[in-house]
Amino acid sequence: MNGPKKTALKQWLSETRSHPVYWTRVRTQALELGANGCSGVPEFYAEACLEHDIHYRTGKLVDGGYLLLRAEADWIFRCRIQQRSWFCLFSPMAWWRWLGVRWFGGASWKGVGD
Fold first, then answer.
1. What is the pTM of this model?
2. Domain ranges within the chain, ordered by starting residue
C-alpha cells in the first residue's frame, strides 16, 4: 500500500488516535455487528481489536468512507497497537498480532480484495 490512499489513512489514524467520539462510535458499531474483539488472545488493545473486527465485517472504515483491502485493515490494526504501545513501532505485540491476522484471518474477511 502506498500513494495518496496511504497518506490519507496515516492522516486519519493520527486524527482518530485519541478522539473520544470516534472510539465511542467504534464500541457502538462493534456492538451492533456482534464483534467479539480480541478472539483467542488476551484483551490487550481491545478497542483496536473491535475496530479491526468492524473493518473485517464491513470492508470499510468505521465512519464509512474508504473501502479497505484486507491488507489495509491489518495494517491499520498494527498501527493502532503501535500507537498505544510504549514500544511504538517496535511493539512486539503489534507485530505478532499483525502476523496472526495476516496468516489466519482470511476466512473472517467479508470485504472485497486482499
1. 0.88
2. 4-108
